[in-house]
Design goal:
CATH class: Alpha Beta
CATH topology: Rossmann fold
CATH architecture: 3-Layer(aba) Sandwich
Number of domains: 1
Helix content: 40-55%
Number of helices: 8
Strand order of the largest sheet: 3-2-1-4-5-6-7
Length: about 250
């Protein structure tokens, strides 16, 4: 393994090919990290690498994160290429707002696969490695609406799953503290990403007390802070323009 690098920190980012995940990859690369990015399709990872300037510090690993074999491979490939894993960002996920009675069994299964199982398997694989090293950070991307449900955004199933991820974040922070591993979450409000229709922008801006949607860079700033925070663990940090602060 003569190609192994040990002088840089390494981060694994799931769902790294677009939106917040791609923005996180850019931010970590700019900070000098090695980035191992996961997405379902090789084509999307090739496009992401192009956007990121084909950095030698970016390694794309395709696979469905809901498959435990993908999580294991992510950690193994990261160690083989860069020597260790310092940070895991569980970013892969999707948001599906709709009336509770209209969710189909297929939609529930899909939400459970990506938003729940993907977080569990990736965290298990990373934690095994981090426990051996007695250091590391796990950061979950949650959702503001899981902290404060909103009648204007009916999303009971995403709230159910992301709310569970928030509680797991706190439980895992306690469990892994003896190994010097910090576990935190960032709970974005509505962020300006390609998944939002520009025609809905005025409505989306109005959902935050701040009167605007958030920027991907603002999520990246919070995640980078938690990546270096040695005495902050078990925290769910809202980055939502006040959306989860209460009724307004």
């Amino acid at each position: 393994m003569s190609h192994t690098l040990n002088h840089n920190s390494t981060v694994i980012i799931t769902g790294a090919s677009s939106g917040i995940g791609l923005g996180l990859a850019q931010a970590y690369l700019a900070r000098g990290y090695n980035v191992v990015g996961n997405a379902r399709s090789a084509q999307r990872l090739v496009a992401a690498a192009e956007t990121l300037g084909h950095s030698e510090r970016f390694l794309g690993v395709e696979g469905d994160i809901a498959d435990p074999a993908t999580a294991t491979q992510l950690v193994e490939r990261a160690i083989d290429r860069f020597g260790q894993v310092d940070v895991l960002v569980n970013n892969a996920g999707f948001f599906l707002p709709k009336a509770f009675i209209d969710y189909s069994p297929e939609e529930l299964e899909s939400l459970l696969q990506t938003n729940l199982k993907g977080v569990v398997y990736a965290s298990q694989a990373a934690a095994r490695h981090m426990i051996e090293r007695r250091r590391g950070h796990i950061i979950n991307i949650s959702a503001s609406v899981a902290l404060q449900p909103n009648l204007a955004v009916p999303a009971a199933l995403p709230v159910l799953i992301k709310g569970g991820v928030n509680q797991m974040t706190r439980a895992l922070a306690l469990e892994l503290s003896p190994f010097n591993i910090q576990v935190n979450a960032v709970a974005p409000g509505i962020i300006d990403t390609p998944m939002h229709d520009p025609a809905h922008r005025a409505f989306l801006d109005g959902l935050q007390p701040a009167g605007r949607v958030g920027r991907i860079e603002e999520i990246a700033d919070a995640v980078l802070y938690l990546s270096g925070a040695g005495f902050t663990t078990g925290v769910v940090l809202p980055v939502d323009g006040g959306m989860s602060s209460g009724k307004w």
